[in-house]
Amino acid sequence: MMADPRSSPNSTLDPEGSEDDEDAILSTLDDHAVAFFKQLRRKKQQCNEAIRQLKEQLGECEVKISEEKERLGIDDADSERKALLNEAVQKFNDKPKKGIQLLIQNNFFPDKGTPAEIAQFLLDNNDLAKAAIGEYLGDFAELNLQVLKEFVALHNFTNQTFDQSLRAYLWSFRLPGESQKIDRMMETFAIRFCECNPGIFHHTDGGYVLAFATIMLNTSLHNPSVAHKPSLEEFVSMNRGIDDGHDVPRTLLEELYHSIATSPFKIPDDDDGLSLLFFNPEKEGYLRKEGGAKKTWKARWVVLKDKCLYYFKHQEDESPCGIIPLPGVQARRLELSKGKKGAGGFYFELVGEDDGRGGTRAIKGCKTNSKGMVVPGNHQRYLFRCEDEANLTEWLNVIQAATAQQLFHVFQSKRAALVEQHQHALPPVEGEVEVSV
């Protein structure tokens, strides 16, 4: 029985070795082992060629990605910064301190996270939960206390009424439940209001007490569980002498009372519907969308936010009637053939990524059916019509910018398809020798 060349102690064949070394070793083997090794050599050559082609295609993909990023003005550093910001926002909304720590540790702030920088971040970022901001500002740590001061300083109450100022302040975060935290936040507010409006109060304590009294008035007048509703005279009476022994001007108290009575404080509620989800979108506006069994065109309010396209029946609707996730989706201009219904307009379509077989994958969207139930969309494409060329160009640019951030995802899919294609395309080796192990 012939020895298996893969286990023979005299066989030192290495598919990675040089061909001169291999030829020298082949001269010492029998015909069966030589045939087996030549088969391995041919396999190796085929694999090397496949690898070379893949590397070449990889280089072409990288060039196309670079060109597309340059065309869309995408900076890798900017993309990384956005990814860090998104992660930090999610962490902040769950555990505020950890979210800020993540930003500081990754040098997000130019000056390493000063109280002023953190305060500006809390005020400007619309994706932060108002309750989480209140929790962070109410913390007793020294950094948080400094951030609270800087946060209030960012509010300009100059020439605003006491009522307007307090409403604006309480809308920028949600008051925590602990009385000690509320106490400090009202004290900080009063100091800032007096700085912006000198002469209204004799002492900041007057503004501090009145802020508390206003919150209590709002609760008493509008909470159904509170039986007694204080009158104007009772409100004026309970605030006598609160301003360092002086009375607050009656006109101020009357204006404050009537304002609260007719328009209660609107407290930010992070769980109030879906409106915050669509706040500050990349783009929004009316488009015509083709849909339905008869493929009719219907006006839809379309919102692009966080790599998803949402469409609503009406602009004022809180819940979308369809959602199109953009990762792996291509947006491209479309010219309808003459004679087709709607030809001559300004169109673009959304199609799935290349499936590696000459087609495209289904887009994993969802929509609400006639019964109000959420069902999978599974569309091969979505077709939209714009009002003019400028609007078409704007939508294409913002959607392509959102999908371009997923170019590496697209490349990976293409690469996987190419690898699979090459595996199936490798020809059998002529004269293969089957060797039993």
Give structural attributes.
alpha+beta, nine-stranded antiparallel β-sheet, 437 residues, disordered C terminus, 48% helix
| CA radius of gyration | 34 Å
- The percent of residues in helical segments reads 40-55%
Beta-strand fraction estimate:
5-15%
Average predicted local confidence, pLDDT: 81
Q: How are helices and strands ordered from N to C? A: HHHHHHHHHHHHEEEEEEEEEHH
3D shape:
elongated
User: Structural class given helices, strands, pairing?
Assistant: alpha+beta
User: Main beta sheet, described?
Assistant: 9 strands, antiparallel
- Summed up, the helix count is 14
Q: How does this structure look, described?
A:
The chain is an alpha+beta fold. It is 48% helix and 12% strand. It has helices at residues 19-26, 31-72, 76-94, 96-105, 115-124, 130-137, 142-153, 162-171, 179-196, 204-222, 232-238, 250-262, 389-404, 407-425, and strands spanning 283-291, 296-305, 308-312, 322-325, 330-334, 346-351, 366-368, 374-376, 381-386. Helix 9 packs across helix 10. Mean pLDDT is 81; it is low at 5-13, 271-276, 406-411 and 429-437.
What's this entry about, in short?
By secondary structure, the chain is of the alpha+beta class.
Helix-strand layout with pairing:
Layout: H1 19-26, H2 31-72, H3 76-94, H4 96-105, H5 115-124, H6 130-137, H7 142-153, H8 162-171, H9 179-196, H10 204-222, H11 232-238, H12 250-262, E1 283-291, E2 296-305, E3 308-312, E4 322-325, E5 330-334, E6 346-351, E7 366-368, E8 374-376, E9 381-386, H13 389-404, H14 407-425
Helix pairs in contact: 2-13, 2-14, 3-4, 5-7, 7-9, 9-10, 10-12
